[in-house]
Amino acid sequence: MRSTLMGAGFSAMTLLLSMPTARADVIDGSWCLDSGRRMSIDGPNIVTPAGTRTKGDYSRHYFQYVVPSGDPGAGETISMQLLNEETVRVHEGGADVIWHRCGPSVS
Fold first, then answer.
1. Edge-to-edge strand order for the sheet containing 57-59?
2. Which domains does the chain have, with CATH numbers?
């Protein structure tokens, strides 16, 4: 009986370890608005909606940066919080705006 239970436990453990792991959600990636605005985050690097490359404060689910000079709203602090794998809340201009992951690019 004991060897049967140990065998079943070993089989269950082997099954769990062989299952593919789910990719954890992160704020990194390309984000879009229906209006056509886009931005891209890669670790502490961001390409702003105006197309400027700059750096910000990064964590897996949060990003914050100061809008660089030359971009609309220069000097303003923009903060973002990942709500789920496909949605991020962006606080800009005193309001929250919901952005979504961009779909595949069409060439």
1. 53-55, 45-47, 38-42, 29-32, 95-101, 87-92, 77-84, 62-66, 57-59
2. 24-101 (2.40.128)
pTM above 0.90, yes or no: no
φ, ψ (nearest 5 deg) of residue 12: -65, -40
Strand 38-42 and strand 95-101: the pairing is unpaired
Query: Helix (H, G, I), strand (E, B), or coil: what is residue 57?
Result: strand
For the chain, 107 residues long, give each residue's pLDDT as a single digit of tens.
555 544 544 444 444 444 443 345 899 999 999 999 999 999 999 999 999 999 999 999 999 999 999 999 999 999 999 999 999 999 998 999 999 999 876 65
Q: What are residue 63's DSSP bridge partners? A: 58, 80
